[in-house]
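Sequence and fold:
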Amino acid sequence: MKKREDNRLRRWAAALLAGTMLLAPAGCGGNREDKNLLPDEKEAGRVVNMFSPMEKTDPNAENVARTASDLTIAMAEERLGVTVAYQTYTAEGYQDKTYDDVALDRARNDMDDLYLLNPDTILTLGAEGRLMDLSGLDSVKNLREIIRVANTVDGKLVAIPQEVVAYGMFVNVDIFKQYGLELPDTPEEFLECCRVFQENGIDTPVGANRWWLETFVFAQAYADLYNGGNTEAEIAALNSGEARYSDYMRPGFEFLQEMIDCGYIDAEKALVSEAIEAEGPDFLAGKTPIVMAYWGAANTETAYGRTDFEMQVIGFPSSRGQMPVMPMTGFAVGANAEHAEDAMRVMDVITSDEALQLYAETNRVISPSKNVSVDCVPALRPLNDRIQEGVYVLGSNAGMNVEQWGNTCLIVRQLLGGATVDECMAAFDRLQDEAMNRQ
């Protein structure tokens, strides 16, 4: 992979998660009380240092996710008598270094106690033994199994999120009804809907960008792996090399190639388009019936929270029906943290059911706790129903020796740029071979 493309992906990953939930809690200096601006330990008493991204790109923008996390941090501070000192990343402060680059450097040099990490960084630091095993925390017994699976490296639970991000297809139900179409469950039904739309004058039925087409791939690649009752054995076969990632990925890439060949997505436009900024206006104007986005985009007025048509968020087409796709990030504690005991106590509070209930109610999101639930907006109910049934695939899994979310995104972009499906599968084979050589 080209370093420049990798850096762009990592910048986006930090920015995306900051805008949705998992990387949003961090505070920027001018927006927090003085006690959270790198306080003097002698004045503040017990301090836990937390490294996280800047909470928003627009200083004047409201950030509900940050507010939700701040509330749980305040709960921990009051309960434990500690101060959580926010040490934040800004692109300006680190120039060309991405958030992941800086997080890796800080964790490897034991510069902080708590870290908010992206999936590939969790996998890297977990494999290096630089993150504490969190499995002994009281809060862990309440976690959904998906959290344990996605954040376990070498048998250790190394990260816990405050929110589960879910991706789905945002569809204009009115347009489907106009042409007498049911919302699609399978890849074949999806392609038929696109054909009907195109025949009726909708030249490009799917609004796409350069980041999120991998969601279609994950839904088809891993529908059986995560829902067939043999998940651990299949992942073990992939990690040992007995099974090949390319065999799982091929159907999804062939599906995307067919969409490109038929003109259902504009590959050239998608390759240079940023998420929501490019496809959002046409979707909101009723010109494009289908886009893909994350759960939070249905909750906020800045994305698709208010439409002039009936909108539903459904899972991506797969052999097992509509399939939500869920990547993971999470909070972690450095293995050699200076204030390790207090950091672990803070983790136990902010991931407790009480704190996660507060977070979920404030942010209206899916909680990592199996005991916490909140009402979602009507548009999200189809996606939420599938998740509550236990039907989903993971877009990131620290238990896999090949990082999924970022690598798949980059290889999809190769396809958009003209690479063949076989060339894309060869890229997955190279990644798997490299991972095997590192073992």
Observations:
- Confidence is low (pLDDT under 50) at residues 1-44, 55-65.
- The first helix runs from residue 3 to 20.
